[in-house]
Amino acid sequence: MTKAEDVSTAGALALPPWSGHYFTKTSYNAPPSKLDARNVKLSRPFVVCITGGGRGLGEAYAIAYAQAGASHIVIAARSVEELESVKAKVQDTDSSVVVTTVRCDVTSESSALELKSAIQKECDSRLDVLVNNAGFLDSESGWKPITEGDPEGFRQTLAVNVFGVYLITRTLLPLLLGTEGGAKAVVGITSFSSHFASYSISMALSKLALNRFVEFLDKEYREQGLVAYALHPGGVATKMSTSEGVPKELQKFLISEATLSSHMLVWLTREKRQWLSGRYVASTWDVDELEGQKEEIVKEDKLKFRMVV
Ligand SMILES: NC(=O)c1ccc[n+]([C@@H]2O[C@H](COP(=O)([O-])OP(=O)(O)OC[C@H]3O[C@@H](n4cnc5c(N)ncnc54)[C@H](OP(=O)(O)O)[C@@H]3O)[C@@H](O)[C@H]2O)c1
Question: Which chain positions lie within coiled-coil regions (predicted)?
Fold first, then answer.
C-alpha cells in the first residue's frame, strides 16, 4: 500500500451521511496506484477539451490525459499566458500530444463558437471528452449573509459556473455526438458544497445546478450514446480555494491533491460507464467499492439530488 492509499479522511471530518462522503468505506486524498493515469493506454485518436485549463485543477487534468495517451488536448481559458505555460508542461509530459490553446470566456457566445471552430479545424471536428472545469468563486463576499453579499459576485458565479457550462456544452455537443466511436463524455467539475445550505451561497447553488445539468444531459442524450458526470475533485489548494476572503475554517478541507481528481477523471472517461451517467461522483471514493455497488446505484437511482420526504 502506498502512502497515498493509506490516506483516509472518513471519520476525521465527521460529515453528514447524506453528503455522500462515506459512500465508499475507503477514501483517498491522493490517487491510489490502481488509478495511475500513466498505466492507461487510451486508444488514439482521443481528443479532450478542458475549460479553465490554464491552472489549478485544469492543469492537472491536461497532464493526466497526456499521461494516459490522449492524442490531442484543447485547453481554454481567458489568460493566454497561463494556457501557454500548461501547454509547455503537457508537452514535457509527452511530446507526441498535440495541444491547442484557445482564449475563451465561457460566458461569451462568440468565444464558445471560436472554441468550436478551433476543434473543427485543429482536431478534424473530433471530440471525445468535454471537461467543464472553468469556475468562479466570489471569494470577497460569497461567504456573507444574503443581505450583505455582493449581487455582482453572485451574478458572476452563476454566469461562469452555470451559464458557462450550459453554453460550452450546447455548443460542443454536436461535435461530441458526431464523433464516431468516440467516448462521448461530458464531465462537470462540481463541489461538495452543493450538498449544503451553508458557506458560499453562490458556489453551493451553482454546483447544485451543475449536478442537475448532468442529469438533464444523461436523460436527453443517453440514447445518442452520451454519458455525463458531475465530478467532485476533493478539497484542493488552488488560486481559487486559497484566495483572500476564503474563511480559514474552510482551509481544513483543502487536503486533497490535484492529481486525486485528474486520475479519477481519466478512469471515469476511459470507458463508457453508463451506470454512473447523470450522477454525482466524488474523487475521494474507491472505484472498486463503487463498482461493487453498481446494481444498487442503478436500481435505487442513487447519487442524484432528491427531496427527503
Ligand atoms: N479547488 C477546490 O478545492 C475545488 C473544490 C470543488 C470544486 N472545484 C471546482 O474546480 C474547478 C477548477 O477550480 P480551481 O480550484 O482549479 O481554480 P483556479 O485555479 O482558480 O482555476 C479556475 C480556472 O477557470 C478559469 N476561468 C474562470 N473564469 C473563466 C471564464 N469566464 N471563462 C473561461 N475560463 C474561466 C480560470 O482561467 P482564467 O481566469 O484565465 O479565465 C482558471 O483556468 C472550478 O469549477 C471549481 O469550482 C474546486
Answer: none
